[in-house]
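@channel sequence for tomorrow's demo:
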Amino acid sequence: MLPTWYIPVFIALVLLSFFMTPPTFIVKRVMSRFQLHPTLTDKDTIFMTHEAGFSHDSEVRTVHEAELTGKDKEDFIRHWNAAKFLYQHKQGYLDREGRTYTVRVSQRGIDQRFVLIPRDLNIDVIKHQPRKGKVAYQVYSPELLELAMELANRGSSPAQAESSM
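structure tokens (generated this afternoon):
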């Protein structure tokens, strides 16, 4: 005959082991909420906007905005997820002179906006977080930079650029 205290101890040990080593899918789900550079999937809706001529004295002129679909979306997701996170900028806001590319992502009903600022080999990213403000960080991905420039050049013909100015 087993003593009655064995059953509660056994249940407590099972629960303790579950909390000490939770399943991988639970860990990934919790960690993704705190991830600065999110991982994108095929289920996410991605819009890309090419903004030219931004300076602190003039207003932004949107040349082209389109939803990414098909091969463009697959390429963008692959390059975005492969981008190497370098570091978070402590000063927060960055110099946004020149060309910028805005990416809007709808992930599980949450809209996020990322401003991509091309540099020599790196990309500065400003993440607009709902209810939290802006966070700036830098990633390394020459392929993502090339793809963003290609999509912007393909989507904005000179006629469209002149009509939007």
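heads up for whoever presents: The chain has one domain: 38-164.
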